[in-house]
Structure formats: structure tokens, C-alpha cells
Amino acid sequence: MTTAAVGSPGSARRYLHSLWLLSARDLRVRYATSALGYLWSILDPLVMSAIYWFVFTQIFQRTVGHDPYIVFLITALLPWVWFNSAVSDFTRAFNKDARLVRSTAIPRSIWVNRIVLSKGVEFLFSLPVLVAFAIVAGAPVGWGLLWFPVAIVLQTALLVGLGLLVAPLCVLYTDLERTTKLILRVLFYASPIIYSVGDLPGIFPQLAAFNPLSGIFTLYRVGFFPEVWDTLSVVVGALMCLAFLGLGILVFRGLERPVLKEL
């Protein structure tokens, strides 16, 4: 999955096995200590979708997005929750389990990848909500739905790259944890969640293409809303996801020792 995971087939299998065990433990702990359990995977995006749907359809005259608007919202809000929760957890990835990070022989990249995997599984668990709303709202389904797995792969690459950047930097520079939270708040409105790239005026669609989430959300939506397709956002977004992955691997290699000393 990342730098330290490559090697002999045996070490790769051990890495993947450990990755799954850690991710499964995270999920068990999350659901075991919660009365609502699995429902938390869908409650947050569902409430957010309901709020924005009500505001933009019942209070204000909506000029963005496409009908059915609730499906339009959910197709971006579900992956946004995966992105937001994973990046938030990256800021504490090493500090939270500092003793294990220092003492274990497992490649340290696993503490990032476990977050990506466990939050990704929660995202998959929430997809039945999208299916249900698409059926109830009568959203048309087209061949563009084949892009959905591609969006998942690209988002996984983006999150792994960001995790390998954010996690070690937050150990070395503690203020970055708060900075990351602020950036995520801004990024929510700077990403095409309550609107599509095509709704932006002037040069903003071109600028939005440099936000990799623009291309990713377009791929999630195009199966239901083929009119949102934006080639520039998709191509640039895919390239940026790969660039973040490569940059994350390089930075992680350089910072791994300083991080272990700091822990």
C-alpha cells in the first residue's frame, strides 16, 4: 500500500494481515462503545443532507445542483465524511498510539493506512442509504455508475498520500492539528458538495479542477447526473491524487526517523 509495505510476498501478506486486524479493531471499538453503532456511519451525512435539502429547497430558491437534490447531496456528502473523518484522525495517528508506534516492528505507514481502511469500510457501509434515496427519489441510473469504483480508488490514493504527509508533520509541528481542522472547514465549501463544478461562474471551474475532490465527487455523481461530467476536473483531479500519493511517500520516508525520536 505504501513504501514500507513493499518487499517480499511474505512481508506484504503480514502487512496486509496486520492492517486488517488493526482496522477491524478500530471498527469494533467504535461500534461496541456506541449505542447506535452502525447508524453513526450514516447519521452524520444524513442529517447534513437533510439540512441542506431543507434550506435550498424549502427556504431559498435553489440555483445550484440537480434534481433529485437529496441524491445530489448524498453522493458527495458520503465520500466527504470519509475524507473529513480520515484527515481529522491523521492528525493524531502517531500520538494516539505512540508506544506501539515506537516499539512495533510493523512498518509505520500502517498507522495511516488503518485509518484510510477503517473509514473506507464505514463509507461502504453507508452506501445503502444512497441506494435507498436514489430509489425513493426516482434518480435515473446510467453507465456512468461504472466510474464509482474509480472514484473510490482515487480517493483512497489521495487519503493515503495526505495521511503520509499530515500524520508525521503533526507530530513535529503540533499547531498543524488545529490548522488542519480550519482547512477542512474551508475545504467543505470550496468543494462541489452543495453545488457542482458547472455551477461555478467565470474562471472558478478551472480553479476548482485543482481541488482533487472536484474530480472525485464528479465521478461519484456522474452515474446519477451525467450532466455534471467535467473532463478537466476529472483528469487534473486524478493526476493530483497520484501526485499527493507520491509526495506523501517521499515525505514519510524522510520524516520517519525524526518522528520516532519526537515520540
Main sheet specs: none
Structural class: mainly alpha
User: N-to-C terminal Cα separation, in Å?
Assistant: 24 Å
Order of helices and strands: HHHHHHHHHH
In the residues, how many domains can be counted? 1
Shape: globular
Total beta strands: 0
Residue stretches low in confidence (pLDDT < 50, at least 5 long) are 1-6
Q: Count of DSSP helices?
A: 10
Rg from Cα: 19 Å
Instruction: Report strand %.
Output: under 5%
The helical percent reads: over 70%
Q: Give the mean pLDDT.
A: 87
Any overview of this molecule?
The chain is mostly helical and 263 residues long. It has one domain (3-262). Helix content is 71%, strand content 0%. The chain is built from 10 helices and no strands. The protein has helices spanning 9-32, 40-59, 69-90, 98-103, 110-137, 148-172, 176-190, 204-208, 212-221, 231-262. Helix 5 (110-137) runs antiparallel to helix 6. The relative contact order is 0.14.
Please describe the topology of this protein.
Blueprint: H1 9-32, H2 40-59, H3 69-90, H4 98-103, H5 110-137, H6 148-172, H7 176-190, H8 204-208, H9 212-221, H10 231-262
List keywords for this structure.
263 residues; 0% strand
Question: Short summary of the structure?
Answer:
This protein is mainly alpha-helical and 263 residues long. It has helices at 9-32, 40-59, 69-90, 98-103, 110-137, 148-172, 176-190, 204-208, 212-221, 231-262.
